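From the pipeline queue, job 12 of 40. The input is one protein chain; the requested action is below.

Action: predict structure.
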Amino acid sequence: MQPALTGQADEATRARARRTLTDHLRALGTADGTVRLIGTSWLVTADRPAGPTGRL
């Protein structure tokens, strides 16, 4: 696990988190070892139109 996620946790907590994540991913695995996670995301972009003088 990345230190940024677990850096402040003690070793027992990190080990428990690693086991929990591993167990969860194994439960989602297929016979050929593939793990597919269902998810969605939004990518939003925007432009600020120029003002009346043409400047931003």
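Job complete. The chain has two helices and no strands.
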